[in-house]
Structure formats: structure tokens, C-alpha cells
Amino acid sequence: MDQYRDFAFVYDELMDDVDYEGWVDYIEKIIEKENAKVKNILELACGTGNITIPLAKKNYDIAGIDISDEMLNVARSKAEKENIELVLLEQDISELDFDVTNLDCVLCACDGFNYITYDEDLINIFSKTHELLKEEGIFIFDISSFYKLSTVLGDNMYGENRENISYMWQNYFDDEQNLVEMELTFFVADENGKYDKHEEVHLQRAYTEDEIIDMLEEAGFSDVKVYGDFTFDAPEEDSERIFFVCRK
Ligand SMILES: C[S@@+](CC[C@H](N)C(=O)[O-])C[C@H]1O[C@@H](n2cnc3c(N)ncnc32)[C@H](O)[C@@H]1O
Q1: Ligand 1 centroid to residue 77 C-alpha, Å
Q2: Distance between CA atoms of residues 24 and 1, nearest Å
Q3: Edge-to-edge strand order for the sheet containing 157-161?
């Protein structure tokens, strides 16, 4: 039951309430606020390209990496439809291997790093990112907050009955390991209205802000800025998305 295999084909539909345009604007505002010169971007855990494609359209040279070939295939076909050339690589970012250095920006959007469940793997990603960035290069990413994973998603169950997709999403939070296991069961209708059942288990780790800052510092970053929920203010106790910004 690999993560983001069958789910890749319903991901965009189920994320249709996410304001990706606003997300890309916020990323550009961060770049502007930091006065960073950004032309090339490496995007980690790029998924179906919801951030990658709009950034490519804004003339950034962007390469995306994701562990799921299915997610990348969705990104490839969307890019093809829009005549956009993208470099997309299938890779586990825990073993990040990218041979272009001196990058202006490394990005990871929409809680990709929560899927990295071991400290040493996340530190390894941060160290590799540090190595790949140019001097003054900028590293921007967000995570789902500890509060969101432990309390909002926590042990809750969600469900929705849409026209062609119905899903149940049952979560279990392990407060010893700070891991949330998400059991996703979804039913997708074909053109004859016959439903196929699909199941996936996703595992995300809840990190505190301090844990992330310590790991960034261990990897060589300093002066880490932390923002809550698409603002430029420090996160509140109930912020659900925490943004981290740091320079090499
Ligand atoms: C919530 S999706 C975010 C996708 C995209 N960034 C977006 O904004 O829509 C998380 C993504 O992380 C990817 N992912 C999870 N673990 C990964 C790993 N170890 N290496 C690379 N990608 C990973 C998944 O395949 C999935 O595409």
C-alpha cells in the first residue's frame, strides 16, 4: 500500500479547495521580502506540480523531485498540456542526489517534509540542501504544525461523498513517536458509474518548530525565520501551517 500511488489520480480533485495561486504569490512575497535573487529553483516533494507549474509559467527554471512516479506522471501530463518543459525526477528525498549546485532556491511546499519520519533523514535533507544552495541561496518550506497533526487531524475521521469520488480518512496519532497514521479508503467511479475501491496508508511525523530549527542549525543554517499560516507573523498556538525561511 504505497503512498501516493492510486491516490495520485484523485489528489488534484481532492485538493481543489487549495488556493495554489495564493500559495505561489506568498512564496514570491517571501523571495521579495528576503531580497533574494532567484532564477532557478529545486522543488522537493513536488507532487503533481501544483506549485511547480505556476512557477515555471513565471519563468523560473524549476526542477521537481518526488518519490511517487504516479504523482510525477500527473505533473508531466499537466505540463505537456500547457507546453511547459519541466525537469521532474523520481527520487526519495531522504537520499537526495542532485548534481546541479549553486542553486538560488530550494523549496518544499505543502508538508512534504512531514513525510520524512526520522530525524536523521530530515537532517540529511537539510544538509544536502545547504550544500546545493549558492551563498545567500534561500530555503523555503512549510510543514503541517504539531497542533494540526496531533489535534486537528489527530485521531479524527473525515469523509466526503463527491460526484465521482467518495472517501473515508481515518487517522491515528501516536503520541510517543509523534506519528499520525492516515488510513485512506477511496472509491472512484468509472464512466459506467461502477466504483473501484482503493486503499493507502500515509504516515506523517509531527515536528515542533524548535525541533526543525535545531535540525536546520545542525545542517548549517542560521537565522531561521518562522511564519504562521501564510502571514509574516510568528505562528500562533493554533496555526496549522508553519513556514520556515533561511539563507545559506
Ligand atoms: C501533500 S503532497 C504535496 C505535493 C505538492 N508539493 C503540492 O503542493 O501539491 C506530498 C508529496 O510528498 C511526496 N513525498 C513523500 N515522501 C517523499 C520522499 N521520501 N521523497 C520524495 N517525495 C516524497 C509524495 O509523493 C507527495 O507527492
Answers
A1: 17
A2: 31
A3: 157-161, 165-174, 179-189, 195-205
Domains and CATH numbers, the chain: 8-144+208-247 (3.40.50.150), 148-204 (2.20.25.110)
d(CA 244, CA 218): 15
Using most ligand atoms within 8 A of CB, pick from 51, 68, 144 the residue to mutate for ligand 1.
68
pLDDT digits (tens, 9 = 90+) for 145-189: 999 999 999 999 999 999 899 999 999 999 999 999 999 999 999
- Tell me which residues have their CB closer than 6 angstroms to ligand 1: 4, 45-47, 50-51, 66-68, 71, 92-94, 109-112, 115
Check pLDDT > 70 for residue 1: no
Q: Which of 18, 20, 46 for mutating ligand 1's site (highest number of atoms within 8 Å of CB)?
A: 46
What residue has cell string 536523521?
A: 120
Helix axes 119-132, 209-218, angle to 10 degrees: 50
List, for residues 73-120, the tens digit of each pLDDT value.
999 999 999 999 999 999 999 999 999 999 999 999 999 999 999 999
Residue 169 CB contacts under 8 Å (≥ 6 apart), including other chains:
157, 158, 159, 182, 183, 184, 185
Over the stretch 19-62, which tens digit does the pLDDT of each residue have?
A: 999 999 999 999 999 999 999 999 999 999 999 999 999 999 99
Closest by CA position to 20, among listed 142, 115, 110: 110
Q: What would the DSSP string read from start to end of 57-94?
A: HTT-EEEEEES-HHHHHHHHHHHHHTT---EEEE--GG
Residue by residue, DSSP assigns 130-151 as HHHEEEEEEEEEEEE-HHIIII
